[in-house]
Amino acid sequence: MGNRLSAALVAGARWAVMAALVLLLVGAFWRVSGQAADSGAVIPPPALDDQTAVSGPQTIVLAGGCFWGVQLVFQHVQGVSRAVSGYAGGTRQTASYEAVSSGLTGHAESVEVTFDPHQISLGRILQIYFSVAHDPTELNYQGPDSGTQYRSAIFYGDEQQKKIAETYIAQLDKAGVFDRPIVTQVAPLKGFYPAEAYHQDYATIHPSSPYIAFNDLPKAENLKRLFADLYRDKPVLVSALSN
């Protein structure tokens, strides 16, 4: 009995070690293949970034994988007054987490970023988006998440936003900033639909979640490291704005 128990304990320990090694290998693969999700990408600012004619708060809707991490990044950016997780690319009728998770709605998990152009320009917002918020070379996936709902996309509100986004993508591709071409979709915003309340501020509320700790908290650290002049320690939370 004692020998059997000891053997079982040894076998269990071996399986635990093997499982840990598998997790480390998977993590290493994600770190190597997901440049922006790990160390961040140092990229040049946009050559075209003229918003001198705009006044008042501006919004841009950005998709780059799970919206938890994208929201977390922009909630820490100076000049951003609001960052809301939601859905864009589909219809109001299918704008729910359960439906969008099927990958059949046309929606992408997105974040509506509201910012003051006198404090931060759209070009700088996009520089952060391409460098630390996600990896723009991953087609229909980000890290462990796959499907069209996790695609890289910029949903623009007017022709000037479109021009700035498309010109910047062309600039980065021409410079060979990334090892692979940028696959970010640039599309007109037909509607943005806020996600369910439990998705808002998720990364801030659940920092000890393994998913958040591995995939999202490093993005906020990269923002602080690469964009120290634009980083703010206290995030602007949806829950605080709604109180």
Q: For this structure, what is the CATH class?
A: Alpha Beta
Shape: globular
Low-confidence stretches: 1-37
Helix fraction bin: 40-55%
SSE order in H/E notation?
HHEHEHEHEEEHEEHHH
Please give the largest β-sheet. 6 strands, mixed
Give the oligomer, counting copies of the same chain as homo and different chains as hetero: single chain
Kindly state the mean pLDDT as a whole number? 87
Detailed description of the structure:
The structure is a single chain. 39% of the residues are buried. This protein has one domain: Peptide methionine sulphoxide reductase MsrA (Peptide Methionine Sulfoxide Reductase, Chain A). The chain has a six-stranded mixed sheet with strand order 7-6-1-3-2-8. Strands 4-5 form a two-stranded antiparallel sheet. The N and C termini lie far apart (62 Å). It has nine helices and eight strands. With 243 residues, the chain is α+β, with helices and mostly antiparallel strands.
List strands and helices in order, with pairings.
Blueprint: H1 2-33, H2 35-38, E1 58-64, H3 67-75, E2 80-88, H4 97-100, E3 108-115, H5 122-133, E4 141-142, E5 145-146, E6 152-156, H6 159-175, E7 185-188, E8 192-194, H7 202-205, H8 210-226, H9 238-241
Parallel strand pairs: 6-7
Antiparallel strand pairs: 1-3, 1-6, 2-3, 2-8, 4-5
